[in-house]
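JOB MANIFEST
job_type = single_chain_structure
chain_count = 1
residues = 196
[input]
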Amino acid sequence: LIEPAAGTVRLFGHPTTQRSRVPWQRVGYVPQRIGAGSGVPATALEVVRSGLLGPRRPWADRGRAAKRKAMAALDAVGLAHRAADHVQVFSGGQAQRVLIARALVRSPELLILDEPLAGIDRASRESLAEILQGLRAQGLTLVTVLHEMGELSDVVQRAILLQDGRLVADGPAGEVAHLRDGGTGAFGTNADQRVD
């Protein structure tokens, strides 16, 4: 995390500057890309089980309970049948779903996603949107960084539009979408959007 230039950022009531006090186990994080293709071969199940590991839990990915949790997380993203397959053979959309399962295996209250639609085909984006809509309906809080809402437009409730590092708009996603670029619905080249 980058320290704020001004003000205080709190996560579950704790300032992020006091990292050891933040209950990180309540947070799931989904990076933009999976790194397994360039390293040691790993199955989908192994990648998801790695989400149980932590500084004070070096063996948390072992045993029947860990496998049961990992299989439930893979099932939540529609990939339980591919648990034994190596992630290197997965499409971009399937790899993204494995990363979501890795974050879900911890049963987080907050799921942070970095560009979850980047580099995946339309069918995968639609499938991902359906999964995220279901998670939100179950009460999971989603925060994601997007350059465009695309298939997530029905999932997004609130949008914060940034341009050149400055707040441009904050409000209901539909209203923010109308404000950006004169109501055309397209983001400018320097605009980022955080939605929840």
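[summary]
Residues 122-137 form the longest helix (16 residues).
The chain has a mean pLDDT of 84.
exit_status = 0
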